Every structure is written in C-alpha cells, then in structure tokens.
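Researcher: Let's run the pair from yesterday's discussion. Sequence first, then tokens, for each.
Model: Starting with the first of the pair.
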Amino acid sequence: MSANALAGRSGVNRQVITNVLKGAVWADIMTVVELEGALGVMLWPRHVDWDLAALVDLSPGGEEG
C-alpha cells in the first residue's frame, strides 16, 4: 500500500507516514491508533492487554509507576 493510499484510508497526513517509515520521527499515540485502524493490525505490541491500573496510580498523592 502506498503512503498516499494509507493517508487516505487512515486520515493521517502522508508526510507524517513517510517520516515515520523513514525513522525520522516517532509516531504519537493517535497516529498509531489511526494507522492500526486503517491497516487492521496492531502496531504497538499487545497494548490492549496492559493493566493500566498497575502502571499508574491515579489516587490522590499516587505516583506514576
């Protein structure tokens, strides 16, 4: 699939896609989400299985961990 076709399917700017593919930039989380939806595959390994409560304590005075 071309960068132009992926941009049209995902709504992500073609130049952003090109820059990510070249390794010139890191994709932000929303870009990853849009690309995953357009491609039908997970690009960020197993992120849907993460236990977010264990990663971040959101209680008052809690610390990110």
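Model: Moving on to the second of the pair.
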Amino acid sequence: MSSDQNNFYKAFEDQHRGSREVIKSRLSVYVPFIKKIQAAHPNATALDLGCGRGEWLELLQDNQLTASGIDLDDGMLSACRSRGLNVQTGDAIAHLKSLPADSLSIVSGFHIAEHLSLDDLQTLIKEALRTLKPAGLLILEAPNTENLVVGTSSFYLDPTHQRPLPSALLSFLVSYLGFARSKVLGVQESIPLREEQGPTSLFAVLSGVSPDFAVIAQKAGDASAMASFDVVFAKEYGLTLELLANRYQERFDAIERKTQLLEARLNRIWKLLEPFKWAKSLFKK
C-alpha cells in the first residue's frame, strides 16, 4: 500500500470512525465473552485481523490476554507500534493460513468482512475455524445495513467497502462452514435510546437501529466448556428496526387511545348540556 493510501485511510478513520477512547469504550460490549474465554482457556491468545489503530488489542491486553494483530496499512499500524502493541504488516488471510491448527482462543475482525469478496470471506472463516482451539470464538463486526441511514448513506462513505453484508448472511456462513453455534449482536447504538429515555421519534426509527452488528461464532468443544458460554449467547443485544418501529407505533396507538377517550368524554358532556341548549333557545324567544 502506498504512503498516500496509508495517509488517506488513517485520516478517514480518524474523522469518521471516532476517537480511540470512543471506539475502545464501544468494544467493551465483548468483555463478557472475553471473560468466558479466559475461564475456558488458561493463557488464552487472540489474533485481530485488520487491527487498524489497535483499540481492540489494547482492550484484550487490559483483560490479560496475549494479543497480536495484522494489517496491510502501515499508516494505521503506526498508532499500534507507538503504544508497544504486538502487530505486523501483512495479509490477514495469508497470515491465518500460516498458523498451526488449534492455536488461538479468539480470532477477530472488526470492519474487515465488508471489504472482502465472498470467496475471501469464506476462506477467512474456514481458516479461523481451523486455527481456533475447541470452544474458541470468531468475532466479526460489520456495518449494520438494517439501520436505514447506514444502509443508504454512511456505508458508502468508505470507498473500499465491497457491498453491504446482511447479518443473516454472515450468520449463515459461519454455521454452514462448520461453527457449532453463533450469535448476532447489535452494537454501538445510542444508550439513551436503548434505555428508552424519552419517546421514540421517526428519526430514531430511521437512524437508531444498532449501526454495527457482530456475529460471534463458537467452535465445537467440550460440553461443559460450551455450557459455560450459554449465558452470554442467550442475552439479547442491540436495537432492531422491528423493535424501534413497534415502539414508535405504540406511541401513536397510545395517543389515539387518549384521543378516543377524550372524544367520548366530550360527547357525554354535550349530551348533558343538550337540555340547556333548548332552554337557551326558549329564553331568546
């Protein structure tokens, strides 16, 4: 990758992806999965594909995992190296192919899947399955095109995106290619909207669906080890279009019910006043 391309993509990420602090705080949604891996795999190791500025690597290190990253973009990796993170320049899939089987606890790729062809994405998933230890996790995060603003606008800001990647397709691929189970997470949504602080507006329906999603896939393993992850796989994450549309509809249904109740009360009042209308007309005569 040329120096101009390196500088372009780093500047683009800095402006449109958010600060390191913001991204690192958003990634904390995955900490419960990290904790389960630590319990299942003593001395757990992780590899981040397309590691970029290294926010995820820092979070893994903060949680006492041995983590390394690989990326083609030296401009992005300069931020990792300045923080002493274990990274190298290279092709993510080629590097994954070079690793021994059953050698990693976590393979991750944040906003890399939508940059790949379908063939390359399938190869990545197959190689992740091969290199993961039993009960290990593959984490792939991508833009959520169920969010109407993401799907019609912001996805296309990045000129290196191949095409929108529906969560249902990615979830199908990991299951089809051999993972024992998977979970779709909606992530990075507005906290006030998630916690229903105030009414759901029409704009919230259009733009408030979790702007990113992740598919977390687990390799088959010992029954007791797999069972220990049940609690994090059972939890629901994020905001869907259906959920927000239902909230919006419920708001208007409630307004309609109040309107109907008010109209019924007014009708009763007019009926009570009917004799007085007759008396008033008689007085005028």
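Researcher: Give me one sentence on the second I can quote.
Model: The beta strands are 45-49, 66-71, 87-89, 104-110, 132-143, 181-187, 212-218.
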